[in-house]
Amino acid sequence: MVKIPYVDSAGHLSVEVQLKNSADVFLVDSSNYQHYRSGSRFKYFGGHYSSSPVRISVSGVGRWYLIVRGSNYSY
Questions:
Q1: 44 in Cβ contact with 32 (< 8 Å)
Q2: Three-state SS annotation for the chain
Q3: Which one of 26, 27, 39, 71 is CB 3.0 to 4.6 Å from 44, fit for a cystine?
Q4: In the sheet where 54-69 sits, what is the strand order?
Q5: In this structure, what are the phi and psi dihedrals at residue 36, rounded to the nearest 5 degrees?
Q6: C-alpha pair distances (Å), 13 with each of 21, 42, 50, 65, 73
Q7: pLDDT single digits (tens) 28-70
């Protein structure tokens, strides 16, 4: 199983992801990460991207998870 990177945010978080090909890139909070893992519908910031770099910013306190599906990536 792939280890999903996460970070604990105190209010504002920005990520940059370098993709090698098109991919889905999501930032999700803890609650929505649990929905994602169980296969349920989940709310996210991000979407499907076909060019790099992908930059996503969110506001909110708590743990945020970075999910990348469909590509090798670096962040």
A1: yes
A2: CCCCCEEEEEEEEEEEEEECCCEEEEEEEHHHHHHHHHCCCCCCEEEEECCCCEEEEEEEEEEEEEEEECCCEEC
A3: 26
A4: 45-49, 23-29, 54-69, 6-19, 73-74
A5: -60, -50
A6: 24, 19, 22, 11, 19
A7: 999 999 999 999 999 999 999 999 999 999 999 999 999 998 8
**Residue 73 scores a pLDDT above 90:** no
pTM more than 0.85: yes
Cβ–Cβ < 8 Å for 64, 44: no
